[in-house]
Amino acid sequence: MPETEKPLFGHPWIFIRGVPSLNFLPPEGPSEVAFAGRSNVGKSSLINALVGQKGLARTSNTPGRTQELNYFVPDGYSGEGSDLPPMAIVDMPGYGYAQAPKEQVDKWTKLVFDYLRGRATLKRVYVLIDSRHGIKKNDEEVLTLLDKAAVSYQLVLTKTDKIKAPAVPKLLADTADKIRKRPAAYPVVLSTSSEKGDGLDDLRQAIAETIGIAHWQ
Ligand code: GTP
Ligand code: MG
After folding, report:
1. Is residue 216 in some structural domain?
2. 3-state secondary structure 108-152
3. Ligand 1 atom with the shortest distance to the CA of 58
4. Is 109 in the pocket of ligand 1 (CB under 6 A)?
5. Is 113 inside a domain boundary?
6. Residue 107's pLDDT is what?
7. Is 23 exposed, middle or buried (0-12, 13-18, 19+ CB in 10 A)?
8. Looking at the domain assignment, is residue 217 inside a domain?
9. Is the CB of 70 under 6 A from ligand 1?
């Protein structure tokens, strides 16, 4: 179990690489967690909120902002022997964005699916679900792919500031119930608001434990 001297999110993170196709992936090394979800669900915003750096991952009102697998690592991480947490966070292009040219959508979808299926150092995928919309058909397809590939994943509701606070517990319970029979799903669903900061510490802790660090701070 890697124990590091520095906290997971208590220092700057940097962008190291955008991966347009699988042959540009960095060599498999430190553990990775990836953020997946429909276009515009709030993947890039959530990464920025977790690390506390607004402009780290590019966000946009227009779906389809993120078009490559974007790799972020703790600034200064220099491989084995570094006292920084050995991990990368991967921001993924969204799926299910109908307005983009079909060719482009097919390219992203293939990239996302190929990466999710075949990356040995990928420890867990956080599949983000917009709390206003719930699990959609294309989310189900991704969950089925992850189940088939035996890639561990956890669902994270986003944008909870957009729904009424008392509705959140029931939505969490209903969502957990929907994935109860899925073999690769972590049974606990998380809820977050990047805007308000809600749920971020729980997600930080979940990520730390996933990569074998006891505490995120
Ligand atoms: P793609 O890269 O296109 O797949 O999108 P994405 O999933 O990375 O979404 P992004 O983070 O770019 O956010 C999309 C939009 O949702 C932006 O306008 C964000 O400001 C907004 N947004 C993200 N998180 C939240 C949140 O917690 N609350 C609210 N109200 N808006 C949010
Ligand atoms: Mg994005």
Report:
1. no
2. HHHHHHHHHHHCCCEEEEEEEEECCCCCCHHHHHHHHHHHHHCCC
3. 12
4. no
5. yes
6. 81
7. exposed
8. no
9. no
Q: Which residues surround ligand 2, an ion (CB under 5 A)?
A: 43-44, 65-66
Is 38 part of a structural domain of the chain? Answer: yes
Closest CA to 145 of 180, 193, 110: 110
Tell me the CATH number at 62: 3.40.50.300
Mean pLDDT over 48-53 rounds to 96
Determine the Cα–Cα distance for residues 153 and 144; give it in Å rounded to an integer.
11
Tokens of 121: 């150092």
User: What pLDDT does 3 receive?
Assistant: 52
198: β partners = 193
1-36: per-residue pLDDT in tens? Answer: 455 556 788 889 999 999 988 999 998 989 999 999
By three-state DSSP, how is residue 164 classified?
coil
Strands 69-74 and 87-91: antiparallel
- Give me ligand 1 centre to Cα 110, in Å: 22
Q: Are 28 and 121 in contact (CB under 8 A)?
A: yes
- Expressed in angstroms and rounded, the spacing between residue 40 Cα and the centre of ligand 2 is 7
The domain of 100 spans 3-210
What does the pLDDT read at residue 1?
43
Distance 35 CA to ligand 2 centre (A): 9
Which residue do the tokens 């991966």 mark? 19
Please state the domain count of the chain. Answer: 1
Answer for the pair 4, 87: CB distance below 8 angstroms, yes or no.
no
What residues pair up with 157 in beta bridges, in sequence order? 129, 191
